[in-house]
């Protein structure tokens, strides 16, 4: 069901002491088709086990000649350190086709606000390039506001390019950096972005009055630690911006998922279809649909296995599925999209459609 890819590293560029960009080209003869804001899933083989990590594109289709991802070091992280310290140009990486829902809307939007922190700039950088350089009708004339939090200038990924855009696109693009350890930098506040400050900044952008038209024509894209995104979402909802105009991408896999007891005496039948394939298999009660498929050698797509990336999303066309997030379990039925990595069949038969 998933499409495996081979990608050669053409170049590796250091962005900061802790982040590198990898420029890629397909080594399997097929073009890599992606949208600004999407991510690539890399496959690593460690101790005879396959492990997966998602990396958002920092390049933009139609603007950059080759796709690129930007990786930031996570302290004690297995694969971010491996990529930064050992992987070199010329090597070929295993991957699956690009994925992700953190993409720009198809219609014209007046104003975009982007809130990013650290490596969270990566998909936002790709989207900004799309909006600034694309000749697409829906991208032209949109205004962009970036709030970007880091420790200091040195650790800020893509700062040189962003500073250039501030000068190059006055009136269309503005950026405020939030530095926790540097005072008096240009375009920067020596503060953490909190709810009061965000409210003040957004209100000031609309000269103190946020009209109904502004609420309908402004979109927000958040890619930052969960606490910052939660704060931003609550503040924006309090300012009456519609929920559906607030998109977020979570980089940190969820480690506190609820675990269900597996009962081998009860089974459910799952029929998955997509790309000219139909496969039927059984899950045990209490086993996720993805785990059951993988146990039986059926390659359903996935990356995080924890409900944050949406690689595993499928449309439920028959039956019922419990989708068990950390803070809520959704009981989904026909017509709903379900994350198979945290999805449990609760009816005797479930039918799922993969795009
Ligand atoms: C949709 C999506 C897009 C992503 N895009 C990017 C990107 O563009 N650039 C990028 O650098 N990373 C990105 N990530 C994060 C990336 O997939 C890995 O999670 C990250 O590189 C850490 O992997 P690791 O193997 O080094 O760490 P692991 O060995 O998996 O983890 C080591 C420790 O770090 C913690 N940890 C894991 N991930 C993170 C994290 N992201 N931040 C802080 N702590 C963490 C773990 O809980 C664990 O304690 C993205 C993740 C998702 C889900
Ligand atoms: S694999 Fe990431 S949401 Fe299911």
Explain the overall architecture.
The protein has 355 residues and is of the alpha/beta class. It contains seven helices and 20 strands. It has helices at residues 78-85, 121-133, 159-168, 195-205, 212-216, 226-238, 289-295, and strands at residues 4-16, 19-26, 39-46, 49-56, 68-72, 92-99, 111-117, 143-150, 173-179, 188-189, 218-223, 246-248, 263-274, 277-285, 313-318, 321-324, 329-332, 337-339, 343-345, 349-353. The strands form four sheets. It has a six-stranded antiparallel β-sheet. Strands 10-9-8-7-11-12 form a six-stranded parallel β-sheet, sandwiched between helices. The chain starts with a strand and ends with a strand. The structure holds flavin-adenine dinucleotide (FAD) and FE2/S2 (inorganic) cluster.
Short summary of the structure?
By secondary structure, this protein is α/β, with parallel strands linked by helices. The chain has 7 helices and 20 strands. The strands form 4 sheets. It has a 6-stranded antiparallel sheet. A 6-stranded parallel sheet has the order 10-9-8-7-11-12, sandwiched between helices. Strands 14-13-20-15-18 form a 5-stranded mixed sheet.
């Amino acid at each position: 069901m998933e499409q495996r890819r081979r990608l050669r590293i053409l170049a590796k560029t250091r962005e900061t002491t802790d982040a590198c960009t990898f420029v890629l080209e397909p080594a399997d003869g097929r073009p890599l088709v992606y949208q600004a804001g999407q991510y690539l899933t890399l496959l690593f083989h460690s101790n005879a086990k396959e492990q997966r990590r998602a990396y958002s594109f920092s390049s933009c289709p139609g603007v950059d000649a080759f796709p690129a991802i930007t990786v930031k070091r996570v302290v004690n992280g297995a694969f971010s350190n491996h990529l930064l310290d050992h992987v070199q140009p010329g090597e070929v990486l295993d991957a699956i086709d690009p994925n992700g829902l953190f993409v720009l809307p198809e219609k014209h939007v007046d104003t975009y606000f982007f809130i990013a922190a650290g490596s969270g700039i990566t998909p936002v950088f790709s989207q900004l390039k799309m909006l600034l350089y694309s000749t697409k009708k829906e991208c032209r004339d949109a205004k962009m506001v970036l709030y970007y939090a880091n420790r200091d200038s040195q650790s800020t990924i893509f700062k040189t390019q962003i500073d250039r855009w501030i000068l190059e696109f006055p009136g269309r693009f503005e950026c405020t950096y939030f530095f926790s350890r540097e005072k008096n930098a240009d375009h920067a506040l020596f503060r953490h972005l909190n709810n009061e400050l965000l409210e003040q900044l957004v209100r000031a952008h609309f000269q103190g009055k946020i009209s109904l038209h502004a609420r309908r024509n402004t979109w927000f894209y958040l890619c930052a630690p969960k606490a910052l995104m939660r704060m931003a979402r609550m503040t924006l909802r309090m300012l009456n911006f519609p929920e559906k105009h607030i998109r977020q991408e979570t980089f940190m896999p969820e480690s506190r998922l609820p675990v269900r007891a597996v009962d081998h005496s009860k089974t459910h039948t799952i029929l998955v279809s997509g790309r000219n394939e139909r496969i039927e298999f059984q899950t045990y009660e209490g086993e996720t649909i993805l785990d059951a498929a993988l146990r039986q050698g059926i390659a359903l797509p996935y990356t995080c296995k924890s409900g944050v990336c949406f690689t595993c999303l499928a449309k439920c066309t028959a039956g019922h599925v419990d989708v068990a997030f950390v803070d809520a379990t959704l009981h989904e039925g026909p017509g709903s999209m379900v994350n198979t990595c945290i999805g449990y069949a609760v009816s005797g038969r479930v039918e799922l459609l993969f795009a």
